[in-house]
Specification:
This protein is mainly beta and about 210 residues long. About 10% of the residues lie in helices and about 45% in strands. The protein has one domain: YmcC-like fold, CATH 2.40.360. It is built from two helices and twelve strands; from the N terminus they run H-H-E-E-E-E-E-E-E-E-E-E-E-E. The strands form two sheets. Strands 1-2-3-4-5-6 form a six-stranded antiparallel β-sheet, with helices on one face. The chain has a six-stranded antiparallel β-sheet with strand order 7-8-9-10-11-12.
Length: about 210
């Protein structure tokens, strides 16, 4: 289970990114359709300085997206190389995943709704505890990968103690997702149990 939860962060770094848009294309519907196209592939490096990750869309069945994720290097508990296929859902107005439900499509967990308001909360019941995602802001940021100001929705994911495995040598309490309705995920921040904020910002988007 912890391995699947770990991959939530790793996959969503790619799962939520949309292809580059034409200047006159500002529709959410177009963004989600382009994002889910079979063959889309993303690559990135991670803060441990050694590990690389790639993700590729291998199927899209009415918005249910399957992606193959390849992690190469000495990342956490993984040795050498690992490949896994994981699943999420795209709709015209939202992004959700099935990580905490271990692939059960009847139990999606909303990451964001594009018309969300600050204070909106999404919950997922793990039995003895709950995972909470809260919309904390709607704000524009300069995104290096796009070289432009982009309106984003900030979502905080609160991690109960013992649920999340060590990542990059840290234990995390909160994951902050910054999502554009047009471009998808553009930045991730991870708050450690020691109060340190680690930022994973995309420096290039090449699809």
């Amino acid at each position: 289970m912890k391995t699947k939860i770990l991959l939530t962060v790793l996959l969503l770094l790619f799962f939520c990114i949309s292809c580059k848009k034409d200047k006159d294309d500002n529709t959410t519907n177009g963004s989600t359709r382009v994002l889910g196209q079979v063959g889309n592939e993303w690559k990135a490096n991670f803060p441990d300085g050694q590990s690389k990750i790639s993700a590729k869309v291998v199927s899209n069945n009415n918005g249910i997206i399957n992606m193959e994720v390849n992690i190469d290097g000495q990342l956490l508990i993984f040795k050498s190389q690992i490949e896994v296929t994981i699943k999420g859902r795209l709709s015209d107005n939202s992004i959700s995943d099935f990580f905490y439900s271990e692939g059960d499509e009847s139990k999606p967990f909303t990451l964001v709704e594009f018309d969300a308001e600050v204070g909106d909360i999404y919950l997922f019941d793990l039995g003895k505890t709950q995972i909470e995602r809260e919309v904390i802001e709607r704000k524009s940021y300069h995104i290096t990968a796009l070289d432009k100001e982009v309106e984003t929705i900030g979502v905080a994911e609160y991690i109960p103690e013992g649920v999340f495995p060590e990542l990059f040598g840290y234990n995390f309490q909160i994951v902050y997702w910054y999502i554009s309705p047009i471009y998808g995920l553009v930045c991730v921040e991870l708050l450690t149990d020691e109060g340190e904020l680690i930022v994973i910002e995309f420096t290039s988007i090449d699809l």
